[in-house]
């Protein structure tokens, strides 16, 4: 009879192990808060030793920021896939907006993490979320240029089209989490998209 070694950890690629630590950390941070989150608890949740966590992330602050970056990488990937699923520019925009809103509905802990970041690091660094938004904002200009080329849009710059759309999406995500909002992300999207499009198209 062969008996396995109880508690022996399975060797995994570094990237997979790192991802598991980040997922465990996201759950613990969102549940306990940054200050109360314990690195040993995170290690236990990820199924690794505490030293392994520190090998990848030298401090709790670095681990927390890495969690935010990974979640935003996931969001960008989902939005890019939505963009590539359509060819018509307005249909693309609708899918991108839906992907953005549904991501936060499916991952409610992310908003909690953003709130914690603002509370804990307000005076130290720029918000990871808004830093990434600033870095990536020009990457979407082509989509609004395509809309302007394909549809009778009013005399509005593509930068303004992008910025207003972004403001609507960011605001909708935050307000959607409030108790009085009974609509799903998909339902909210239809209203927001309709108002956005009817506001930029030139009516004859």
From TrEMBL:
Gene3D superfamilies: Tetracycline Repressor, domain 2. Residues 15-75 form the HTH tetR-type domain. GO terms for molecular function: DNA-binding transcription factor activity; transcription cis-regulatory region binding. It comes from the Bacteria. Residues 38-57 bind DNA. PROSITE patterns: HTH_TETR_2 (PS50977). Keywords: DNA-binding, Transcription, Transcription regulation. This is TetR family transcriptional regulator. It comes from Aliidiomarina minuta.
């Amino acid at each position: 009879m062969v008996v396995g070694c109880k508690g022996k950890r399975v060797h995994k690629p570094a990237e997979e192990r790192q991802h598991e630590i980040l997922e465990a950390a996201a759950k613990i941070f969102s549940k306990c808060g940054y200050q109360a989150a314990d690195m040993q608890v995170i290690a236990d949740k990820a199924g690794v030793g505490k030293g392994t966590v520190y090998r990848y992330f030298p401090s709790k602050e670095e681990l927390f920021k890495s969690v935010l970056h990974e979640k935003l990488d996931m969001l960008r990937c989902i939005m890019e896939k939505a963009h590539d699923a359509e060819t018509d520019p307005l249909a693309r925009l609708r899918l991108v907006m839906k992907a953005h809103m549904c991501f936060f509905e499916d991952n409610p802990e992310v908003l909690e993490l953003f709130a914690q970041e603002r509370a804990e690091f307000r005076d130290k660094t720029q918000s990871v979320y808004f830093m990434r938004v600033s870095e990536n904002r020009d990457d979407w200009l082509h989509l609004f240029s395509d809309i302007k080329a394909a549809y009778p849009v009013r005399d509005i710059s593509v930068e303004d089209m992008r910025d207003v759309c972004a403001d609507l999406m960011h605001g909708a995500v935050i307000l959607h989490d409030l108790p009085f909002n009974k609509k799903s992300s998909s339902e909210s999207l239809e209203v927001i998209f309709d108002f956005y499009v009817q506001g930029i198209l030139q009516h004859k």
